[in-house]
Amino acid sequence: xxxxxxxxxxxxxxxxxxxxxxxxxxxxxxxxxxxxxxxxxxxxxxxxxxxxxxxxxxxxxxxxxxxxxxxxxxxxxxxxxxxxxxxxxxxxxxxxxxxxxxxxxxxxxxxxxxxxxxxxxxxxxxxxxxxxxxxxxxxxxxxxxxxxxxxxxxxxxxxxxxxxxx
Length: 166
Description:
This protein is α+β, with helices and mostly antiparallel strands. It has one domain (6-161): Gcn5-related N-acetyltransferase (GNAT) (Aminopeptidase, 3-Layer(aba) Sandwich). The chain is 27% helix and 33% strand. It contains four helices and seven strands. The protein has helices at residues 15-28, 40-46, 96-110, 125-133, and strands at 6-9, 52-56, 62-70, 80-87, 115-120, 137-148, 151-161. A seven-stranded mixed β-sheet has the order 1-2-3-4-5-7-6. The two termini are 26 Å apart.
């Protein structure tokens, strides 16, 4: 955790700020295929409550968030989650994403989850760098997997395998 922020579980009290940070990432164009942040109810329904966190500054403002979702209902994938991590533009470069990814790794390992995965646009070099520092590795490229604002985009698949689980 950083000296100037605290890590806490994400709750509905954080909804407005979490979704605003999500929308800021969407608007930048290299974070997701999404074009609009969902309503809180939809967001919360698809993220695992025990594996979502926010970083708060001294005033209680959300600096960033991380959340994981199930990859599949099949029992073979019980130990695999997909995550998203977003940091407010003004809070970048302060170690927020690193601390969020550490909190997620800790919570998933305590739950017996052995793999955290995600898809990252190759152009999102900052996200790739922070994920690499957090122990993620690129395992492949999904070429031209989807159109984003009329342009075909590749996605790099990244994963972190737990050194303690599995």
